[in-house]
Amino acid sequence: MNNNVESIYFSLKKSIPKNIEILVVSKNQNVLSIEKLYQIGHRNFGENYIQEMIKKYKILPKDIRWHMIGKIQSNKLKYLTPFVHLIHSVQKIEHLRIINKLACKQGKIINCLLQIKICNEKSKSGITSKEANKILESESYKCMKNVNIIGLMGMASFVDLSKVHDEFYYLQKLYNIYKKKYGHYVLSMGMSRDYSIAIKYGSTLIRIGTSIFGKRSNR
Predict the structure, then answer these.
(1) Sign of CA dihedral 40, 46, 48, 54
(2) Which of 135, 137, 191, 206 is the most exposed place for a label (fewest CB within 10 A)?
(3) Rounded to an integer, what distance in angstroms lies between the CA atom of residue 167 and that of residue 164?
(4) How far apart (Å, rounded) are the C-alpha atoms in residues 148 and 143?
């Protein structure tokens, strides 16, 4: 863990436009590293694994806004929905049905993003624009009262940085279409190595881990 996370965070925050939200990716970081940023006022943290997020949620202050950015597991959604702030990684209408059913029982509305595949790397998942359109136009989704898709998420190429501009441009165009048609207002794109490019292409939320914490530590 980087022992100077507070100054790095403030430096990052100062270097980006004020309207850009920073989601601190706390995957594999210990509770102390999260507490340091909490104590200076940061509240948005993202996790890749539901079980890890649950453990941290139980220990840390309850006004933290937890974001799920990793792969969704249907059988574990029931543990996530009581406290999650935003789910970034929705790719199936079936997951939306489960989230909606759970949220209905809990008397709440859960916001979600559709994860769009914008690069060809096998490690990056997501759906096509055609599949996203099918979800957004489906009668099933339109009938859901307790789940709300508010935007898109995407992960650009890691191996070939020269492709990132085109990938973010593509996602920006799709987001702008959905913004007009569906009222979307969150575009989650950009990570530690490419967030400055993402901001140029209209990202409203950047997901930053390594640039703040350094190399991930063992919990």
Answers:
(1) positive
(2) 137
(3) 5
(4) 11
